[in-house]
Amino acid sequence: MTAGPVPILAEGLTKTYGGFTAVDGIDLEVRRGEAFGVLGANGAGKSSTMRMIACVSPVTAGSLRILGRDSATDGAAIRARLGVLPQDDTIDGELTVRENLLIYGRYFGLSWKVLRERSARLLEFARLEDKAGDAVATLSGGMRRRLTIARALINEPEIVLLDEPTTGLDPQARHLLWERLHRLKQDGVTLLLTTHYMDEAEQLCDRLVVMDAGRIVASGTPAELIAHHTSREVLELKFAADERQVMIDKCRGLAERMEELPYRLLLYTDDGEETLAAVNARGVRPQTALIRRSTLEDVFLTLTGRSLVD
């Protein structure tokens, strides 16, 4: 893909609904051909941000340029160069798999000749070529999701927006979808995605931001965020209910940070084996002890908390 303007450039991007500020002056720069993640709990401002970038919701304040165009004045032209994968599949159940691609492509003014060629290629890309004449109702959830991605690519977009791309899919379907998205990146397509799956963000995202209460609270590569916001390893201990508090009190001061959960104690440390030895030296005998590397989920929970947000 040829060089050109920055795919997504936002400065002071703000969205308000009445007196409520959903997105509070954020800056974003998404580079060509990268997968960029926007993470956050419910109500953090992810969806409002995605809707502004998709040019279906006006910007309240700040500037937003997509592919070098102003979202405020060039919405239609921008949308023609975007592919959008919504959180819920919206494919037409009364059409066949191939017909979903053909009919959707007509909205972009593509000729039947072009559509037949692209739909054949996209069905192969989505591994649905043997389902082309089947009714959508016969597809599994993973197949429907792959069809939705194929449909989002019918206009050969330069940017694809993915809202929770693998929600509800089984592990096999998720991994196949990840492999398809990696192929898009290799072809130079820019991906912007939201996800609740931290392992998915680590797998797919070159860079990402974490949003909380409408603001960006952290940004960087997955490795940078883990290195900056949490320890190298986590020691997870589980105790019997009748001795839990006594054992927790004995563990205090043994790690950089300690987090008490209803059924577990998390010790954040750079050396899990050393910390476990120190735990045992204090006479602490947990029911189970697990040493694992820190993950993006630890970063996310550190930054946004564990309380549910509705």
Automatic annotation (TrEMBL):
UniProt keywords, alphabetically: Antibiotic resistance, ATP-binding, Cell membrane, Membrane, Nucleotide-binding, Translocase, Transport
GO molecular function, a single term: ATP hydrolysis activity
GO BP: response to antibiotic
Protein's UniProt keywords contain Nucleus: no
Similarity comment: Belongs to the ABC transporter superfamily.
PANTHER family: ABC TRANSPORTER ATP-BINDING PROTEIN, ABC TRANSPORTER ATP-BINDING PROTEIN NATA
The protein, known as: ABC transporter
Organism (species): Actinoallomurus iriomotensis
